[in-house]
Amino acid sequence: MDSDELRSEIDISMWRFIADVVLRTQAVAQQVGLGGSDCQFVALLGVHGPLTAGRLAELSGLTTGTVTGVLDRLEKAGYARRVRDATDRRKVLVTPVPEAMETLAEHHRAHSEHLDAVLRRRDAAQLQVIADFLAELCAPGLSSGSRDGGSGTTVSSGS
């Protein structure tokens, strides 16, 4: 297979993977009584740790008003807490609730185990290529909030 064919195959596989993740996340969200974007905020907190509402707005591309609504729902459902920053009492951090994170992890356990099995079949050099590839895909400046200058709409490459 030549490079153009491989790039095309990778593009198609990436879109399949993205669709699978979105649909799986939506299914888990419904099972635990959250909305899809609510689950994404929990994921952001899981990846980044405690964040301010402003930083969540930047990462998600949503307005601070919309973020406040999401945070209200997450707090009410027991997935996040608002706490004063210990170093700067003027700041409020949104922190994930560990027990809720464990509940969500349980819903994703089969996927996590599959990913682990797939990665264990790769040697260190292959894992480095995968890690580099994913890091480039998630490079700063390409997050959902900044792809089009921050309006929150994702710009497609047309693929």
Could you characterize what this model shows?
The protein is mainly alpha-helical. The protein has helices at 3-32, 36-48, 53-60, 64-77, 98-107, 109-120, 124-137; strands at 51-52, 80-84, 92-96. A hairpin with a 7-residue loop joins β2 (80-84) and β3. The chain is globular and about 55 Å long. Mean pLDDT is 86; it is low at 145-159.
Provide a quick synopsis of the model:
The chain has 159 residues and is mainly α.
Secondary structure blueprint with pairings:
Layout (H helix, E strand, L loop, with lengths): L2 H30 L3 H13 L2 E2 H8 L3 H14 L2 E5 L7 E5 L1 H10 L1 H12 L3 H14 L22
Antiparallel strand pairs: 1-3, 2-3
Helix pairs in contact: 1-2, 2-4, 3-4
The largest pleated sheet is described as:
3 strands, antiparallel
Average pLDDT rating = 86
By helix and strand content, what is the structural category?
Answer: mainly alpha
Count of helix runs: 7
Instruction: Classify the helix fraction into a percent range.
Output: 55-70%
Strand portion: 5-15%
Q: Helices and strands, in N-to-C order?
A: HHEHHEEHHH
Biggest sheet: strands side by side, in what order? 1-3-2
* Poorly predicted parts: 145-159
Number of E strands: 3
What Rg is obtained from the alpha carbons, in whole angstroms?
A: 18 Å
* Spatial shape: globular
The end-to-end distance, rounded to whole angstroms, is 20 Å
